[in-house]
Design goal:
Blueprint: H1 3-22, H2 39-47, H3 59-62, E1 67-69, E2 94-96, E3 115-117, E4 136-138, E5 157-159, E6 178-180, E7 199-201, E8 220-222, E9 241-243, E10 262-264, E11 283-285, E12 304-306, E13 325-327, E14 346-348, E15 356-358, E16 367-369, E17 379-383, H4 393-396, E18 404-407, E19 410-417
Parallel strand pairs: 1-2, 2-3, 3-4, 4-5, 5-6, 6-7, 7-8, 8-9, 9-10, 10-11, 11-12, 12-13, 13-14, 14-16, 15-17, 17-19
Antiparallel strand pairs: 18-19
Length: about 425
Amino acid sequence: MTHRFILPLLLLMAGISFTSCSSDEPKAPDPEDERWIDSNFAKILEEKGYISDAESVTPADVANLKVIDVSGTSQNRGNIKSLRGIEYFTNLERLDCQYNQITQLDVTKNANLEILLCWDNQLTQLDVTKNIQLKELFCEENKLTQLDVSKNMQLTKLRCSSNQLTQLDVTKNTQLEELVCSSNQLTQLDVTKNTQLEELVCSSNQLTQLDVTKNKKLYYLICSSNQLTQLDVSKCTSLSIFDTRVNQLKHLDVTKNTELTALYCLKNLLTELDVTKNTKLTSLHCDENKLTQLDVTKNEQLQTLGCSFNQLTQLDVTKNTKLTSLNCLENKLTQLDVTKNTQLKILYCQGNRLTHLDISHNTKLEGLACCSNPGENGLFRVKAWFDNSNVPESITNFYVYSSTWTYNGSTVKIDYYK
């Protein structure tokens, strides 16, 4: 071979070698090989009209598909176990495959993917480092032990709850608006770089601290069932729904959160709680703390109030005329006026120090629990719109209803009168 042919040949070989090594395109399957795509996956695609023939489908038939939905439902789960062949859907932008039985999912070749919904499967790993266009990732209810989203700079929604994650780094996801990572094994979570965050759900982890002072757009915060000893939400002035139950908080200041409509801070160590500035509250649950007083006179929109298992000696609900449910059991109340609460349907006031009760104006009442109060002279007198001869079944059938009980060794019986 002459020298004039050797150089072009070497260059050609080098070019071929370079092209082969640098391509991100999936290797073309043998036209005779039907196994390039899972047969059951192909069958579902045919049933849903994405392809015409599952038995003769080729990569060219799926290359231009931008959206596919092969998901099941919570009531009717899909039977897909493999999405082998998904790598040939090179223009795919959205993939819905939730509620199936998928154990492996390779989307490393789907560079255009923007939305991936794969929750409630059996995935043990998920690599999205090549999906830099990804905006929404819902992968909750799987068996993931790690998840790297550091390359997904466009991500706005991430749901990865109910996995087995021990760490989650979202510091690079500065566009994130929604983060749901509850029911994992996280011991720390840094959201200080996620200034666009509006919804954060990180409940049922092992967090000992949480800094949300930079998340000024937050309106939905659920951080319950952790090990938090302090939490500053003073900068979260847009906060509407706030759930921090089952932590170890000794102090909680919500005076700056004037947009709050629902506050759940039960099962903490609070000795005081000021909700006088939270005039938009419709639901307040502060049960199982150490509160000695609670002023809800400014919360006129309140519909449900739970303040049981505290140390309250008085409770004024006369201004809460929209109240439908009141749970104030196991306190130290000696009197309770519910005559103004005409919308009341459920009333738990057992385990206090009440001698009597007036429910004559609460004609919508469906459930009443007032046992374990002292009454007077063996009777717990209840003024009602009925008497002992015609007690409504909705009252007597209430699951915790009791017409007699023992208090300090003496029997006490309810006496209804008009």
